[in-house]
Amino acid sequence: MDDSQKKNLEKIANTIRILSMDAVQKANSGHPGLPLGCAEIGAYLYGHGLRHNPKNPHWINRDRMVLSAGHGSMWLYSCLHLAGFDLSLEDIKNFRQLHSKTPGHPEHGETAGVEVTSGPLGQGLANAVGLALGHKILEKKFNTDEFTIFDNKIFCLASDGDIMEGVASEASSLAGHWQLDNLVIFYDCNNICLDGPTFECLTEDTKARYRAYGFDVYEIDAYDFEAIDKLMISIRDKQDRPVFILAHTIIGKGAPTKADTHKAHGSPLGEDEVRATKEALGLPQEEFYIPQPVIDYFAQKLQKDKETEEKWVDVFRQWSNANPELFKEYQNMNVQNIPADLESALSELSIKNPIATREASNVVLNLLADKLPGLYGGSADLSSSDKTMMKNYGVIEPKKFAGRNIKFGVREFGMGAIMNGMSRINLIRPYCGTFLTFSDYMRNSIRLAALSKYTTIYQFTHDSIFLGEDGPTHQPIEHVASLRAMPNLHVFRPADNNEVKMSWLAALKYKGPSAIILSRQKLPELEETKLSLKDGVEKGAYIVKKENNKPDFTIMATGSELSLALDVADSLEKLGKDVRVISFVCWELFEAQDKSYKESLIKGDLGKRVCIEAGVDLGWHKYIGADGIAICMESFGLSAPASDLAKEFGFTVDEIVQRLISS
What we know:
The protein is of the alpha/beta class. The strands form 5 sheets. It has a 6-stranded parallel β-sheet, with helices on both faces. Strands 1-2-3-7-6 form a 5-stranded parallel β-sheet, sandwiched between helices.
């Protein structure tokens, strides 16, 4: 790297500082410390190191830059603006304002160039691991001896907070295990966290830790462009394992009284400090100042970026002509491509009866594996129990990415965040599984999937007290209600084989995350649920038993309790009562129906409204009314056989009929 290039990068770094300081100050909100401290890293990556095209941020083989330390969002926004992404100076000035393209923490889908939604620390790093794994899968599947289609790098900037969060440890352990030689993590090591010096809470040897994970570990001065460039050239030339770079930085670099203190972390510097910082760095006082040489530099680089993609497009064209079958599979892996015959194939799929819905789901999954080449997934050490294994497609192993099953080990949170990263590639439709009660471990990754509308599918099994003897630590009570409370997440609790099939189809069609909740115990297949997607599950709720005249009771149920509800209805009819039974398989899809359909199902003179679900009643009174009868759980479960638990907690036909008749 010559002196001219270094001078250009120095100007870019200081411009990043200007934009970041001024935007945070104008908003009177934000985190200036990271942008000031990591400006040189941003200048190098966006000004020289990244192979991408800002005018086509969706180019599939682009280098990807993940800001895991999402609180430093102005660093990323400044870099994106300067590099030529669709982010104007006016957007920079609207930092943290209502409906702006520069929200407080980066959000995928809101801003071009933001690869993932980050903010809750550790998850961006785990997303980067998922991106790296996904691209290694694509490398293995599509690269040939003659043509290299995928060879990009996944870069991540992480803070001390990311390093401390457990999810980063889980994901880093897996990255080292898989030997992901396309992942590069920069650790912004400034010895300061929000509450003060890191020595008060972080004294580990982080380099040794990452070596133990299986990373190549380096240590650099983040302000030495020659050192950064030398290392990056080496990584481009030959990378055998994931790379961890401990970059020594100064938080709030340049701020006369706040640099190297926690005061620079999470609050605006203040007008006087901003003025003094600019003066100390020899920068003009003009707000949001961008020197013309910086503008000219990026204009020239943008042309080179376009040429880089154009060369790849030419190679891709040659590859597709030479490998028509691979090209066809590439097209078929687009996550939007659902085979036209998939519903009929699912409807005709033979599944034994009775069967646990977790087992039925595995039969469905293995059909889907043959139909959908982009379906990849795994389990947190439970594939033999949550039934998430695709039997014919092998397991991903270190440096071996031909399989489609992923063994995450006991790392639920890391699994969820890695799946989210994989979903961002748009050629991979990820799914993952664990017991429903362990969804708590991964909840924040599910939340980010819902916020960002990632297309992750969760297979949660052992869905109620009826899993039996494992007892209350493993028996979900509040979990289904908790997941239903999350916006954008479709939660399915299918009652039998038929609803399992259509729940999977609905999940695949949804442009967002879905959770399919499944039983451990065997359930009967119901003739009443044998409907098309359109007439059944896609409506979210539908009548499975219609009243003869005017109902005395309208019973709503999900999952294993639907067959129980039908048995209760039969018993009530023998007592002269008229009963309607509704399968409420997915509340979110029901709420998406038009008003007339919803009212036809649950409004009007429908007698006493009842819900039966082996979980808490939270949310049910919206449908059964304040005076409705909720036959649900009001406590934690117990360790006992399922039949004993049904009697103990009132989930038997006799108990329910007696309760309804006496109401």
